[in-house]
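Field reference: sequence -> structure
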Amino acid sequence: MEEVLKKLEVDQRIIDLAMGRIPLYSEYSGYNYFGKFNEDKSFPQPPFFIPIVINYDSTPISYGIINHWFVERGRSYGDMDFAKEFEVGEFALTADQFLDSLLIEEYDNLVEEDHLDEVRRDFKSSAPPDLVLKLSKNDGFNNSGLPSFSDFMPIGYFTESEQGLYKGTSPTNNDFLIQKNLNNACYCEIAHKEWIGYVEKKGGFSLFKKKSPYETVENIPEWLRSGSNKKELFDQYIQKRELGHAWLTINGPGFTPIEVAKRLLILKEHTQEEGFHLWADYWCDKYGDVDDFIFM
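Structure field:
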């Protein structure tokens, strides 16, 4: 895993975090979860997401890197909710933002375990200690006041009327969808699947069901449409050498992990990028024999 992160030129602090070298986080590091010595193959994550830290407080949530090979997009950081069809929300655009957010998220635990000062040094955080304390105690605040967020912010910090100010490539947050960004996005990145034509799942009596406020948009890419045959679509994209579309297709519903692994090996044949080869091999080694689990 470390080789993959180095090939991607990931910040060394993030690599140390992922490899379990940071106090308090080591037990929940991406490598301890994803590493070869961990035989547990539950919750296989779609390959566009590289886990850095796993939060097991309730339903598992991964904090990690959103990295799309074969697609012209900037790398960012997100959280993946296992209980919501592996939905990913972008919460950081830089390593500093990612680490500052994690510092605030785990503030109480860091204090309790007497690791706060050490982790602050390892993270090289520029966040004032009093502001970190204030943010950690008040759910009504977000991190936009931190120095690391001063130049540009992730999509979750914007309202629908402010979406034009967003400089990243994520397609949605919980309030709005950016149509142009759909063309380089996968299913897991869509906050409300009704936007791409999926029917909201609701229980209870039909008399009390309300119409979803999220209406289907026009010009949805084929790999995001609810009615498309994803396996046939992948084959078509490969034949046409539309590798980005093929990649986005397997990062969504319609495949078991073993079926994803087979298609990662096909994509390997079409690129010499060493980082992708390393990650595909790593992912396949972990989940390439899992055939009883469907992502969504």
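Note: The chain is about 30% helix and 10% strand.
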